[in-house]
Amino acid sequence: MGFWLFMLVCDLFVPVIMILCGRMMWKHAPGKINGVMGYRTSRSMKNMDTWKFAHDYCGRLWWKIGWIMLILSFVIHIPICSKSDDVIGWTGGILTMLQCVVLIVSIIPTEMALKKAFTKEGIRREV
Fold first, then answer.
1. What is the pTM of this model?
2. Residue 118: φ, ψ to 5°
3. If you ran DSSP here, which 8-state letter would residue 35 be given?
4. Contact residues for 57 (Cβ-Cβ < 8 A; gap 6+)
5. 99 CB contacts (<8 Å, ≥6 apart)?
6. Do the Cβ atoms of 61 and 43 come closer than 8 Å?
7. Where are the alpha helices (DSSP H) in the chain?
8. 101 C-beta neighbours (distance < 10 Å), count
9. Using CA atoms, how far apart are residues 114 and 3, in angstroms rounded to an integer?
10. pLDDT for 62-116, tens place per residue?
11. How many CB atoms lie within 10 A of CB 2?
């Protein structure tokens, strides 16, 4: 039971970080464009408009995905509570890797939204 609880906490780490960081990006984006903190891609760093748009979009996305992954992580861990340490370890490891993939892949819709909303030069497109 102790290892199961440890793996549950480990598997909740990525979703909780996504929820917290998503909320911070969405509500309190860094005030200045910088290369150290925030959603940093060449498209998002064109100007303050693209910077704020990217943080708002990605922050909302991470917040939603984080809650979904948090719930799914609990649901996945319930049936393996009484399984062997090997099953718990492998399930937890695979789940954490999948969560990291989702975290990284979330860049794609954000970049697509930036591309749709702004020109290459960072000028907002007319809708």
1. 0.86
2. -130, 155
3. S
4. 109, 110, 113, 114
5. 11, 14, 15, 69, 73
6. no
7. 2-27, 48-77, 85-105, 107-117
8. 10
9. 43
10. 999 999 999 999 999 899 888 898 999 999 999 999 999 999 999 999 999 999 9
11. 7
